[in-house]
Amino acid sequence: MIAVLACAVGWASHLYGVNQNLQNYALRYRAIRMELGQSEPKIAELDSLFCSEESDDSIRRLRSRITNYELAIKRQAELQLRQQRLMKEQVEIQKVLENKSNHPHRQRSVRVI
User: Fold this and answer.
1) pTM of the model
2) Using CA atoms, how far apart are residues 26 and 88, in angstroms rounded to an integer?
């Protein structure tokens, strides 16, 4: 019974460590992707940041910077889509107005019931 419990605790500890490594690698990827958009990536600096055991605060700050960057990119994309929709709508309205100005005597028939 104790052996099974010890194995379960050991396995859970191992999985926690693996999960932390995967999260760190995912954060590295996101950081590199962010850096590539601005300038040359500082890969060695990022590796040293993740290798140090005392860098939890630095990793937390980096995670915050990356999250803010990704939110800004998402907002920028949303604004561009909105601008495209507005421009399309503006073109359609201009076409309708041009058609009305080209045919000023043409009126719609109103049907009375």
Assistant:
1) 0.48
2) 38
